[in-house]
Design goal:
Layout: H1 13-31, H2 38-48, H3 55-66, H4 71-93, E1 102-103, E2 106-107, H5 109-113, H6 115-136, H7 142-156, H8 161-170, H9 178-203, H10 208-240, H11 247-250, H12 256-260, H13 262-278, H14 285-300
Helix pairs in contact: 1-4, 2-6, 3-4, 3-9, 3-14, 4-6, 4-9, 7-9, 8-9, 9-10, 10-13, 10-14, 13-14
The structure holds geranylgeranyl diphosphate.
Geranylgeranyl diphosphate is lined by residues 52-53, 55, 88-89, 91-92, 97, 104, 126, 156, 161-162, 165, 188-189.
Amino acid sequence: NKTETIPLPVFDFDDYMIRKGKQVNKALDESVPMQHPEKIHESMRYSLLAGGKRVRPILCVAACELVGGTEDLAMPTACAMEMIHTMSLIHDDLPCMDNDDLRRGKPTNHKVFGEETAVLAGDALLSLAFEHVAAKTMNVSPERLVQVLAEMGNSVGSQGLVAGQIVDIDSEGKKISLSDLEYIHIHKTARLLEASVVCGAIVGGADSESIENVRKYARYIGLLFQVVDDILDVTKSSEELGKTAGKDLATDKATYPKLMGIDEAKKFAEKLVDQANQQLASFDPAKAAPLYHFARYIASRQN
Ligand code: GRG
């Protein structure tokens, strides 16, 4: 089995995720205090603290610790990544985009607070992400902070999330190629995961070679994340078959299983885990353990 070519160091990954997740949740709670005007802060907190796996902030902290930094150095940047992610979910759920009623098992932001407030809550979270990094990061050089802010900006804007979203919207109902599908996923999903890891490494004091290694690692797990999402769509749909027609089969959306078949998609996912973990070869294996396990975790996630 090709996936066992890289032995994983002994490491309790579930415990790691729980511990880091708690620290991230505490820091997120403190990052948006309830204050005047209450409605906007309530709306921001509603989505930011609504649960979620905290994959991006935990990856950011893990990358910082990988290169010898501490959790404290990375926490403001880690929170900023979750703020950006939450903003993108709030806006993605709006009636003018995906028009979704539920997110993370709860009514979407606009369903609770109205569309005007949901748009503004997204704007405020995006703006706060940059302010939070600039104002709250301690013991990191101004040069490194500027690098982080540039990476963050690029990951959200017209070369990042926004690029993926607009190409996705434009391809609706059309037949798209595998390379178009990859473009969408690299920008909508992988780019923010990449920025999370890269920014964590920058604040942690990484040299440019290490930054590029973790960037490549993140690109592979970003694509992996989406391939797994598509596979889950099919497996979930077939479990529900009988009740409703398979969700994925019922839409025009291009997915990896549709374009290459479910077995090939699963093989592709395994290959991406290997390729991701190969990028970590130059790091101390004990320090790289969380990131090794992260790739596995993303490949085997069930939701
Ligand atoms: C308004 C500047 C601006 C940008 C928004 C709407 C948009 C542009 C982009 C959409 C981005 C989007 C919704 C990408 C999908 C991301 C994705 C894979 C979400 C699921 O992430 P998980 O599984 O979710 O980490 P949890 O809930 O666990 O955090």
